[in-house]
Design brief:
binds uridine-5'-diphosphate, binds uridine-diphosphate-N-acetylglucosamine, seven-stranded parallel sheet, alpha/beta, six-stranded parallel sheet
Amino acid sequence: MVPGEVTTIHLIAAARPNFMKIAPLYHALSAELWCEPRIVHTGQHYDSNMSDAFFSDLGLPHPHHHLGVGSGTHAEQTGGVMVAYEKVCFIDRPDWIVVAGDVNSTIACALVGAKLLIPVAHLEAGLRSGDRSMPEEINRILTDAISALLWTPSQDANENLIAEGVAAEKIDFVGNIMIDSYAMLKDKIQAARTTSTLELIPGEFGVVTLHRPSNVDHRETLRSLLEQLAQAARFIPLVFAVHPRTRKSIDEFGLQPVLDSAPGLKCVEPLGYVEFMNLVERSRFVLTDSGGVQEETTYLGIPCITLRDTTERPVTVTIGTNELVRHEDLLSRIRGIVDHHMKQGAVPKLWDGNTAARVVASLRQRCASQ
Ligand code: UD1
Ligand code: UDP
């Protein structure tokens, strides 16, 4: 850090789960005099209910740079972000790049930084599912391999990085920044009226989100899941916030009639963060394949059924309320929770709403020693 000079930092925002990781950090860095954060939105998610709604809920300004990359194949999306972001770095070269999570834009921007010799910090580093058929697992491994600074949300993440040969001095265990967003908006979340707008009784409904390719990209798998949801909705009302990827599959596979056959199953568009968290914290249980939702339910002590074989967030299972459930067991597990056979959980270490402050301290210390 050169005395008197301000350190510029690009915060990469791209897809829905990034916004609640970047927002607390943007606010914390904005309050510092030694640095200037700038938001770069790659445009990976672009519908207003997948992007603008979160900027508004989380108090984020318009992005300083918008790459407008949009959807495509993995190569199109990753390559498109790289080409567009490199141009931004040529005209507005930052001192640091912060990437979050595990989406295609995360690895794309990290690669650009590494090649231009701009140090990259990875927020939510070290998570591993062990399943390399997930595109996110490839993004996680590669981003961690080329980042200069690795901020981990849980101790298992430190262990994963050390096992991969990463030098311990690159790793800072800072905790889970998603919880900072919840803490920041807790009052608004509790005052929201999503439950009453959807005519639901608190504690007597389940929330559903699904978007993983393994669950929604194949007709028979998705049909079987939707049929089980329709059956479950006979004994507990369900709200299904349908992700655009899932909406596309439902339409393409002609599965809307399955949803229409179940009066207890309310399908809604993707919800804003405040509205969604209001539903989650009042639900009996959540059924999901989302990474972030596994963490939020653990923090709130809400039972979570995760429709996956693996999770890169094992503390949500070992410490929290999360359970990995196979497709064939889904209906019986929902029945069990409705009958009050629920897993109790605790909150993992450093999931306390103060992660952004620890990240700022970590970055400042690195800058000071540069
Ligand atoms: C992406 C991430 C995934 C993350 C998820 C969060 C990758 C490889 N995947 O998956 O890790 O869990 O975001 O939600 O980075 N679409 C729209 N409007 C939008 C965005 C997407 O209609 O605003 C539709 C398009 O048809 C698109 C499809 O959703 O082709 C998938 O979008 P994409 O960003 O490629 O992947 P996600 O499934 O959203
Ligand atoms: N979320 C939301 N509205 C919804 C569904 C999810 O605000 O309709 C929030 C959720 O609270 C969590 C984040 O989106 O903070 C998770 O994003 P997503 O499930 O898309 O991605 P993942 O975490 O699986 O990568």
